Amino acid sequence: MKEKVAALLKERVDSITEQLVKWRRHFHRHPEVSFQEQKTSHYIVEVLESFGVYTIETGIAKYGVVATLTNGNGPTIGVRADMDARTPIKEENQADYASIAPEVMHACGHDAHMAMLLGVAQLIAEDYQSNHFSGSVMLIFQPAEEDTDQFGKTGAPYFIKAGLAEQLNAVLALHVCPWQETGVIQLYKGPSMANIDNFCLTIKGKGGHGGYPQETKDPIWMSSFVLQGLYSLISRKLNPLQVGAISIGQLQAGKTPNVIPNEVTIIGTIRSYTSATRQQLITEIEKVSSMVTTFGGDVDLNIEVGEPALDNNAMLIDQVEQVTKNPNSAYRIVQEPYGMGGEDFGHFTAELPGAMFFLGCAKPGEPHVALHASNFDIDEHCLPIGLSIMYQTVTELLSK
């Protein structure tokens, strides 16, 4: 019986694989950046309306789309795909579907995420018409995963504010994974991607002529001690069993070789997996910064609290893994955290049971390309795999 069901699903997925590729290539060719996904949103709505069964809501986080389909009583399962592209990236790929937008590119796979969610929408619509499920499915097309607006928010918090978390029993997502080949599924329970916080630390001293340093309060000299302190925090203050990172991305100081500036600005990022580690690292940065006062300087420290860690619900990850074991699949499961990058899907998992899995998309035998690289592309054979796993997980959750 299981073999028959699996074979039928494969036939259904195979029948729309060509359409999946067309959707993905359309999105890739026409990328739009965070909070500017107007044409992308309109295209998604047109496709959803063509199925003729969804209740469609638009306008969350400017151009977000939520499509809901209910068939009797049962749980409400959400599936989320992000919509925005990266900038400034000029695509190097020469494919006929390469980006036509200057310095904007789908270099993180969101084009594939949207295409696979439209595939889920089509299969669920077919199930509704044949009365093959009970409950509700909510398809969430979310703008602005990559960047923030003037209020420092990405797209996900606006969906939480709109009340989606209270309507859902569980929410799922996937992310293409260029460090795994097509056919590999990466899963992990619990914290799997990092809390993301940024800091800006300005050391204020008294500048002057480089030939008379004794008459200054040299902020560059002070910053040398601060930098040593920041770089030693992970190895000397953090429990080795905890996960955390501090990196400096910008160092801004004077403009001429013979003038000591009045101030130095150090800008960096803080990564962690737990709330306790997150707070500890912030506290330790505050302590290191305060040493400036012992050298006669002043310090301004600003911490920008960003995305929460992606915290995968164990039961949902188990369910994803279970559906990969159907008789017609040949998937390989890798059980590892997804890294120290950020994912604003963490806003969802902080509010309700949620899980994201990583979908291998590297072409077998070819060099792997990093996310956000100007030559990023996917093996499109991963599209029906991601669609099949997501659709099966949704239907299994509805049945339970």
From TrEMBL:
SUPFAM superfamilies: Bacterial exopeptidase dimerisation domain, Zn-dependent exopeptidases. Residues 198-288 form the Peptidase M20 dimerisation domain. Its cofactor is Mn(2+). GO terms for molecular function: metal ion binding; N-acetyldiaminopimelate deacetylase activity. The Mn(2+) ion enhances activity. It comes from the Bacteria. The keyword Manganese applies. Pfam families: M20_dimer, Peptidase_M20. The keyword Hydrolase applies. Mn(2+) binds at C108, H110, E146, H175, H372. One of its GO terms (biological process) is diaminopimelate biosynthetic process. This is Amidohydrolase.
